[in-house]
Amino acid sequence: QEPRSVSILGATGSIGVSTLDVLGHTEDGAFTVEALTGASNIALLARQARKHKARIAVTADESRYRDLKEALSGTHIEVAAGRNAVIEAASRPVDVTMAAIVGIAGLAPTLAAVRNGGVIALANKECLVCAGRLFLNECEAHGATLLPVDSEHNAIYQVLAGHDRQAVESVVLTASGGPFRTWRREKMATVTAKTAAAHPNWSMGLKISIDSASMFNKALEMIEAQHLFQLAPEQIEVIVHPQSIVHSMVRYRDGSVLAQLGPPDMRIPIAYALTWPERAPLPVERLDFAKLARLEFEAPDETRFPSIALARRALDEGKAAGAVLNGAKEAALDGFIAGRIGFLDMAERVEAAMDALAGEPEPLALDAVEGIDRRAREIVKP
Ligand code: NDP
Ligand code: MG
């Protein structure tokens, strides 16, 4: 078999590192690495590029070009820097692109990859949250295959395979509930970014970890699911499941509910997307049902986690609401990480932006998405 070529956008992040780990467990010659991109972590990017014999290494940070060039001196690896260089690297034809840049910064490079056709392993949920219709239109126009890496959506994708879509009643997204699942609201008001980032089950990047604590991550995932699986708002359920073993479920009209289970390890959905339609063996922990003892489920508390209600509102409003919710959330999250606003202020700021920009038309081009994103951020301005 010919080796598959892979580019990893966001190679130095949590998903990027796990992706390279998965590649390291595949048979020799199964994959070749084309482009690896990062931003601030030049030492790691250079190490990854050397180890995996990448053709090109790119940092999004223009000011770090020299550092990267120096770190890769004596190799044949090409070096580039800046936002446009990331987009150019993403547009090199490959069999699989892992889209794992965090935030809306991932949209333009991922769209560039889509335009090559090929497989898009999508970790960057913001692409669908901000630009769902645009993104799916581009996938269709260029014959790209979209495979969700987000564990919940990957679970649903696996469950739906081979089943009649008309028979689906709803999808049930599971949520761990994060570190504050049982906390009182007053106590949540005073937490710092450090406490909020300590996720009980998953090891992830800083921003998505805090989004899990506020359940804004689940809010984004509800909108992601709406686009990915073409669902009506009422077909999207959320249930808190603290053990993170059931990764999500599909409820069929005949009363059957099908689930995908596994240990909370992102390498599983990553490997699924990289090796699809095959499944390769992976040295991960095996679920030991006798030791699991029990799996719990509870309804999310929308008073303590208003993000879920805001997502419902965005699902109902449609149009630009996803882009507004995401842009406002990213700005509010930056403010929280920097210590300028409190944990509970984030949802209030997002709601204010959604009020101010309600009814804005759906952005169907990249610059329109970025325009709405900018306006939402300006309203939040923490
Ligand atoms: P990280 O913060 O760990 O990594 C983000 C990556 O993006 C890094 O490589 C970072 O480079 C790079 N980056 C940051 N800013 C920019 C920018 N402006 N332009 C280009 N590149 C940039 O994030 P995660 O790996 O946790 O998440 C990545 C995406 O995957 C997110 O959209 C997240 O929601 C999604 N996801 C993540 C999961 C997880 O388990 N981590 C699970 C499901 C989805 P550097 O570090 O060098 O600065
Ligand atoms: Mg997820």
UniProtKB/TrEMBL annotation:
E.C. no? 1.1.1.267
- Residues of the 1-deoxy-D-xylulose 5-phosphate reductoisomerase C-terminal domain: 146-229
Q: What class of enzyme is it?
A: oxidoreductase
What pathway does the annotation place this protein in?
A: Isoprenoid biosynthesis; isopentenyl diphosphate biosynthesis via DXP pathway; isopentenyl diphosphate from 1-deoxy-D-xylulose 5-phosphate: step 1/6
The reaction(s) this protein catalyses: 2-C-methyl-D-erythritol 4-phosphate + NADP(+) = 1-deoxy-D-xylulose 5-phosphate + NADPH + H(+)
Q: Name one Pfam family in it.
A: DXPR_C
Cite the binding residues for NADPH.
T12, G13, S14, I15, A39, N41, N124, E126, G205
Q: Where would I find the DXP reductoisomerase C-terminal domain in this sequence?
A: 261-378
Give the protein name, as stated in the record.
1-deoxy-D-xylulose 5-phosphate reductoisomerase
Species source reads Notoacmeibacter marinus
Protein encoded by which gene: dxr
